[in-house]
Amino acid sequence: MSDNLLEVKNLYMNYETLEGKVAAVQDVSFSISKGQSFGLVGESGCGKTSVAMSLLKLQADNGFIDSGSIFIDGTDIVPLEEKELRSIRWNKISIVFQGAMNAWNPVIKVGEQIREALREHYPENTKHINYNKMVSLFNMVGLDDSVLNRYPHELSGGMKQRAIIALALSCDPKLIIADEPTTALDVVIQDQILNELKKIQENLGLGVLYISHDISVIAEMTDNMAVMYAGRIIEKGPTKDLFANPKHSYTKLLLESTPSVVGEKKKLYSLDGKPPSLMDEIQGCSFSPRCPNPTNDCKNGLIEMGLIETENGHWVDKCCVNCG
Amino acid sequence: MNNYIFKRLLQFVPVFGLFLVFSFVLFNATPGNAFTNILLNRELPPEEYARVIATFGLDKPVHERLFLYINNFFRGDFGYSYTHFPKTPIDLISEYLPRTLMLFAVVNIVAFYTGFIVGKILAWKRGTKTETWITMASVFSYTVFYPWFALMCLWFFGYKMGWLPVGKFLFPEKWYESPYSADEVFFTMIRYTIVSSLVLFFIFVLSKNIESISQRRNTRLTGFAVLIVVSFVFWNNGDAGLKSTYAWDIAYHMILPVLVVTFVAFAGTALLMRTTMMEVLKEDYILTARAKGLSQKRIRDRHAARTALLPVATSFIFTIITIVDGAVITENIFSWPGMGVLLLDSLLREDIPVAMACFSFLGVLALVSHLLADISYAYLDPRIRIGSQG
Amino acid sequence: MSDPLKIEDSKRKNSIFSPVVQKNWYLFRQSKMGLIGFFIIVFFAVLAIMQPLFFISGYWSNNIYDPVVGYDSIEVELVIVKCPRNSDFPTEKYDKPEDCPGDGEISDRMVMPFAPNAKPGDYYETFLQPAPPSIKHWLGTDSLGRDVFSQIMKGSQVAFMLGLLSATLSVSIATLLGTIAAFWGGRVDTYLMRQADLILMVPQLPLLLIMAALYRFQVWHLALVLGILGGFGGLVISVKSQALQVKVKPFVDSARVTGGTKFKIMTSHILPNVAPIALLYMVFAVTGAIFAESTLSYLGLLNIDMSWGMMIHLAQTDGYIFSGLRYWWIVLPAGLSVTFLSGGFYLVGRGLDDVFNPRLRKR
């Protein structure tokens, strides 16, 4: 029994739409242990949010987990019913949504919405205890008490985001998912919020799963990371390793397309083409049409996909083990 | 906000004035007048007819009468009823209105509340069998041809089964000995209804802030129980106690009309609520609520329904206006002597002052409802009520 | 897997309908309720069309089947019975006073003026009016010997004509006015809103009653009045709020910036976006029109030969309503027809709702 907060094993998830079945998540596995931060990176539509939603089993009505297991603090939540899930949600694992703008109910005061969560998970608390807790949460994220009595539309974007973090922390979860936590904010606020998050994580010993398409955020905040493409993880391992020594062609290109603050200015590399449609069966390496140096096997679809560990903890897709 | 209300109230005046003119001209355009039927009496000396006409001023030309009428109207003098002389329209309205109010106040509250709950459930259970069946039933009740349906119910429950009375609002036999007139009893009933609804409302609102869910439920139940006990005491003692048998008679007669009208009326609200809820359920904050681990019931009631309430409540206020149309038919079929009957009667018998008074009353009601609807929308949505700071 | 929209590619190329219509039709088909409503409407439309066809083709002869002046006599022999006095009920044969005379029987008191010598037990030949449904008359005949089914068909024609005419009229006017109110704003808006208030203030039914007293309405007069009243009334307010939502969208601003005249922006941008909602309102307007007509003729105020409302009116004045199920073919078909046709339009409206409002779709 590892002391892993979160263990995802061979997760397969798809959406059923009018036009057919979309294989959004294929054979995804990773784990996060106590106090660690993990980053999930990839372009839009690669499946990262689907993974995040699956962790709370909050996927859309037409989304289904085909197979695999998700162990949260030792319990597999995949076979659980709604009722059992309710006690796990927010209490063990919570989420900071992308777009905090809309995550708040516009007709209910902010404080009331947080109190709701507290009442659900700590029914014995008195009003006094809850109030104190909310005040301390707000202090932690850098908000004033008075915000508790405001309506969501009275707050600025940054304030809303901080409040969302406070909400996520309210029931003392062990793991927080931060889904694009700063995408909608300007860089100054971004910096502030990320620093807050880091402080909170250290103080409370939380596990955090960062999901972003912004690789700089991942670089700054995470211990380990995984890169996703077309629903699969194509490379994963310690963040420092991946940045220093990316093995997969896609990872390399991803890193190259981010401007660097140091060094000389060079033209940004951008990748042609677009990700494959997730509705059709993909044979072989999903990245091969866009890979700058595919081998014959890659193109013919003869390679069986799967991750292989190269160095300590650094995993990469079979096809790129030997790609220069 | 106050500015807005003030401007609207100002606009009332010309609109209402136009309305008065329009109605007056319309009523006077119908051929004949309220007194032509006395001409049927062949022994009547012709001067008599002329005298009657002159007394009521019907010999003057229309524009002159219009001018006089408007003048008097804004001085508060509404004239005398032609057919119920010497009663004034005010007398008549104050007699007939409570009866309609009683009936339709109850109907509207019950129908709205039922519709609200049914709509809530419908949207929540989207795609299940329950939903399809209930929706079908709602559509049927919404589109059923009301006069025909009312007749069928009347026939079935009143005549065939004999469970409920066939029309009228009381059994005359029971009232022979009564020291009270029907209106007195009505007033007591109305007062009781208003007070108890207010009490219920306050119980609900004041208990909103109680922290624990079980405590809150207990408070509400206790409050409700207290209300029932007090009502019991009220109707058994003193003034109300003496009236209680008669009040019960009236209430008994109310059962069928209320049921029938509610059946037809609830579906509109239910279906609107369903649509609005379905839109709301796609919002992000519903996802947040689920993520927080809240129970289905709580998400549905506290988050989804609360937001969906806005447009539904607004449309409800609008439907108050259509009460009248419904009243005319309902009161006709159930022989319930209320405003609808008064209106119809005054129209058919060309009792112009009464007809004008009724129309004016309805006109004001419509204007006020429209204004209320606009205000309530602004009030219920805090985004409009409180400007944003961000 | 497969893309249902793709499969119909071959069909699509050969179809006369534009791709937009086809896609919308496909979405509409998804809604069960919309489909049911659609079929109900088709059913009644078929009824409406079939009637003149029956007459023209000679399948039905005018004398017998005309809904207004037709007459069919069905000869029948009835047994003469002597009904017990009211106080003697219930007897072994009859439970309640209405049960005597029963089916196939006639009371001796009725026969007395015509056949003074008749005794209970004798047979009496007479014409059965109203006659119960039979092969010849699918829904029987009414108290004047007219075929009920034919009446239903005629009523269907009236309902469609009136409903569609008035709904089209009122929605067209309201859409135009509402869009103008939203777009121009200011005084124009205020004026239009107060005008709508004015119309709202007047209760529809009493107003129609007065007008009916003034002027003997015919169906198309009623359609006109309903159309105009509806067009200038509350519907304008609803359309205006829809148009306002479109107005604040960025593409309207860009249209303005690129130099579109107010008129052009209104017609090419705002109107097309408001049109779907207008279509929706039209469907509900039809329901309202059918209801108004039925109510008015039920109250006996419409100068019309035959319609569903008229059928119910006749049923009531002839006293058949309280006969319950005994004369069901007089009492039930008209009311059910009004209900179902209104319901049909309403269901189609719901189906259209699903099509035009993507947020409401299941996927």
Structure description:
- The complex is a heterotrimer of chains A (324), B (390) and C (363).
- With 324 residues, chain A is of the alpha/beta class.
- Chain A is built from eleven helices and twelve strands.
- In chain A, the strands form two sheets. In chain A, strands 6-7-8-3-9-10-12-11 form an eight-stranded mixed β-sheet, with helices on both faces.
- The longest helix of chain A is centred in the middle third of the chain and has 18 residues, at 187-204.
- Chain A starts with a strand and ends in a 7-residue tail after the last strand.
- Chain B is an all-alpha fold and 390 residues long.
- In chain B, 76% of the residues lie in helices and 0% in strands.
- Chain C is mainly alpha-helical and 363 residues long.
- Chain C is 64% helix and 4% strand.
- Chain C contains 15 helices and three strands.
- A three-stranded mixed β-sheet of chain C has the order 2-1-3.
- Chain C is elongated and about 95 Å long.
- The model of chain C is unreliable at 1-12 (pLDDT under 50).
- Chains B and C meet through helix 1, helix 5, helix 6, helix 9 and helix 12 of B and helix 8, helix 9, helix 13 and helix 15 of C.
CA-CA gap between termini of chain A: 38 Å
Biggest sheet strand order of chain C reads: 2-1-3
> Structural class per helix/strand content of chain A?
alpha/beta
Order of helices and strands of chain A: EEEHEEHEHHHHEHEHEEHHHEE
Largest sheet of chain A: 8 strands, mixed
Q: Which spans of chain A of ≥5 residues are poorly predicted at pLDDT below 50?
A: none
Biggest sheet descriptor of chain C: 3 strands, mixed
Total strand segments of chain C: 3
> Rg of chain A from C-alpha positions?
21 Å
Q: Report the end-to-end length of chain C measured between terminal Cα atoms.
A: 16 Å
Number of strands of chain A: 12
